[in-house]
Amino acid sequence: MLAEGPDGFQGGLSARNYRFITGVSSATTTRDLMGRVSLGVLTRTGNNRYAL
């Protein structure tokens, strides 16, 4: 994610994309992404429960 820079991931990063990029399980994806949201590293947007 850092390699993409501040303008990377145009359109957002979904849980599905994160799983594909990292190869981790759904449970790990949820923990990773929600942990980053709670730290303020990522911002959750949209109404889809899987959207970040």
How does the SSE layout of this entry go?
Layout lengths: L14 H8 L3 H14 L13
Number of domains: 1
Rounded to an integer in angstroms, the radius of gyration calculated over CA atoms is: 11 Å
The helix/strand series, from N terminus to C terminus, equals HH
Beta-strand portion reads under 5%
Low-confidence segments, given as residue ranges, are: none
The overall average pLDDT, rounded, is 81
- Given the structure, what is the number of helices? 2
Apparent shape: globular
What structural class should be given to the helix and strand makeup? mainly alpha
Helix percent reads: 40-55%
**Biggest sheet record:** none
Q: How many E-type strands?
A: 0
Termini separation: 13 Å
Characterization of the model:
The chain has helices at 15-22, 26-39. The chain is mostly helical. The chain has one domain (11-52). The mean pLDDT is 81.
Summarize the structure.
It contains 2 helices and no strands. With 52 residues, it is an all-alpha fold. α1 packs across α2 (26-39).
For this entry, give a set of tags.
42% helix; mainly alpha; 2 helices; 52 residues
